[in-house]
Amino acid sequence: MTKPILVVTTRYTREVEDRIDRDYSARRNPNQFPFSQQKLLSAAEGADALFITPADQLDSGFFQKVSPTVKIIATYSVGFDHIDLESAARGKIPVAYTPGVNSEATADIAMLLLLGASRRAYEAQELVRTGAWKPLSPDMLLGWQVGGKVLGILGMGRVGQAVARRARGFGMKIHYYDTLELPAEIAGDAVYHEDPSDMLRASQFLSLHAPETPRTRHFLNSKAISLLPPGLSW
Q: Going by C-beta distance under 8 Å and a sequence separation of 6 or more, which residues neighbour residue 12?
């Protein structure tokens, strides 16, 4: 039986690579950098499917030219803003993605950054790495206690909820803004704000987990920062 032809635009983990080799006849990108659009179109000639990443920008022009043999496109990402979905729909090409697959890992990193900032971890590492570390003085590298502080979360989807669970473990209070208020059984003790400005005024720490849209782009500008409580704002 002939295996379907799959265009693969980058290298993946060994487990993924083994499955590709087992189930498909792969056309791989031989380079470390992404395909140009023209090279991707050429690779797609006669192919059954494409396996891409956010580095591959599929705009309306791509879908006007892509081979009619392509039956599906899968992206190795949670987001799909690099794909013109309307053009894909007009071409009757379904798009597969991976919602929620990295929510827990992203939440871990958000807490890592929050704790690193509050405890001035980067500054301390730089002192050690550059040999500038000196005997401790009472006010050296004083940080900020996160317990009892308000964490404002913009975007309470999968990642925002995962961050909230972790932050509660450190004794933080959760305030959030989203387009819709969460059901009580999901929100728990989190405080909902209908206006993101009100959330900012209450937040001593801040974590952003919203998709980039015209409304959220550059949300955290000078005006938004000025709304945060003085003295402790991240």
A: 20, 76
Q: What does pTM read for this prediction?
A: 0.81
Please, are residues 96 and 53 in contact by the beta-carbon 8 Å criterion? no
- What's the CA gap between 57 and 132, in Å, rounded? 45
Give residue 232's pLDDT. 54
pLDDT tens for residues 11-30? Answer: 999 999 999 999 999 999 99
Instruction: Please tell me whether residue 95 adopts helix, strand or coil conformation.
Output: strand
Backbone dihedral angles phi then psi of residue 141, each to the nearest 5 degrees: 55, 40
Count of C-beta atoms within a 10 Å radius of residue 21: 11
**Domains in the chain, CATH or no CATH each:** 5-96 (3.40.50.720), 103-135+144-227 (3.40.50.720)
